[in-house]
Design a protein that fits this description.
Largest sheet: 6 strands, mixed
Shape: globular
Distance between the termini: 22 Å
Helix content: 25-40%
Number of strands: 6
CATH topology: Nuclear Transport Factor 2, Chain: A
Strand order of the largest sheet: 2-1-6-5-4-3
Radius of gyration: 13 Å
């Protein structure tokens, strides 16, 4: 299935799957907030540190399988696989997009 994702989100998933943290960070606004595993990660430096840890620990890849809009957010369901119990699992990514097209907010759950 081919999904019609905004360009920034396509780049986000491509960078995540290549484990290219620099390219992944290029998708985010400077003051972006990511909520993952019950924690808020604020700003590019904190997002970088979190992603570096996640890549090293889990080697996660994510394949979008569904996408839509809800409450002003782009909601993507992705099949996530990696070195973690229960892999693969379907996770929901809720993206808030800034006016410049970069990711301003992301909630993963």
């Amino acid at each position: 299935m081919t999904l019609n994702l905004p360009a920034t989100l396509s780049r986000y998933f491509e960078a995540q799957n290549r484990h290219d943290i620099d390219a992944l960070l290029g998708c985010f606004a400077e003051d972006a907030v990511v909520r993952d595993e019950g924690a808020d990660i604020v700003g590019l430096a904190a997002i970088r540190a979190c992603k570096e840890t996640t890549v090293a620990r889990y080697r996660v890849t994510a394949s979008p399988i569904d996408a839509g809009e809800k409450d002003g957010r782009t909601v993507v369901v992705a099949r996530v696989a990696g070195n973690f119990p229960g892999s693969p699992a379907d996770l929901t990514y809720r993206f808030g997009i800034a006016n410049d097209g970069r990711i301003a907010a992301l909630e993963i759950g």
